[in-house]
Amino acid sequence: MVRNKKINRKLAIKIVVTLLVLGFVIVGIIMLVDNVPSLKETLILATTVKPETFTELYFEDHLSLPDKISLFIENSFEFTIHNLENKDMEYPYEAYIDIDGEKQMIDEGSVFIKNNEYITITVDYTVTVPIQRSKVIVNLIDKNQQIHFWTVEESET
């Protein structure tokens, strides 16, 4: 019976010492994280899930984009802005034709899109100056995000 008391006492001492050491280690880690900002930031980044944010910009029915245009005839295309920024956003945009580095504006505006919603915009335009090959560009101004397609003037036959 005396032997069991000695074993129990030794076991209890080992458990208490282990818990004390573990407590000191935990307190030390907490103090280190609190006092070293980069460690705190690393710990927060490692344990926090940040949702991905982005905006989709694309042409509707990209296979039917006008690859040839005629002078003085109205052309059109549609593009879509899809807000996946996890907040409501205002999107200023511009659509223009780049003719040999010269910007010919065909549409500009701004649209408000709620989070996880989208808006499709139709751009109607008429080319009044001869062009050979040009790029039609849609630019989300604040996002510095662009899409484009190439077109040529349809030759008269």
Outline of this structure?
By secondary structure, the chain is α+β, with helices and mostly antiparallel strands. The protein has two helices and eight strands, in the order H-H-E-E-E-E-E-E-E-E. It has two domains: 2-47; 54-153, Sandwich (Immunoglobulin-like).
Reconstruct the topology from this structure.
Elements (H helix, E strand, L loop, with lengths): L1 H34 L1 H11 L6 E6 L8 E2 L4 E11 L4 E11 L2 E12 L4 E9 L6 E8 L4 E9 L4
Parallel strand pairs: 2-8
Antiparallel strand pairs: 1-3, 3-6, 4-5, 4-7, 7-8
Helix pairs in contact: 1-2
List keywords for this structure.
single chain; 157 residues; alpha+beta; Immunoglobulin-like; 2 domains; 8 strands; rod-shaped
Mind explaining what this structure looks like?
This protein has 2 helices and 8 strands; from the N terminus they run ααββββββββ. The chain has 157 residues and is of the alpha+beta class. It has 2 domains: 46 residues; 100 residues, Immunoglobulins (Immunoglobulin-like, Sandwich), CATH 2.60.40.10. The strands form 2 sheets. Strands 2-8-7-4-5 form a 5-stranded mixed sheet, with no helix packed on it. A hairpin with a 4-residue loop joins strand 7 and strand 8. Helix 1 packs across helix 2. The longest helix has 34 residues.
DSSP helical segment count: 2
Strand content: 35-45%
Report the structural category.
Answer: alpha+beta
Got a strand count?
8
Beginning-to-end CA distance, first to last residue:
115 Å
Shape: rod-shaped
What would you report as the Rg, rounded to the nearest angstrom?
A: 32 Å
Taken together, the total number of domains comes to 2
Instruction: List SSEs in N-to-C order.
Output: HHEEEEEEEE
Which CATH class of the largest domain? Mainly Beta
Can you list the strand order of the major beta sheet? 2-8-7-4-5
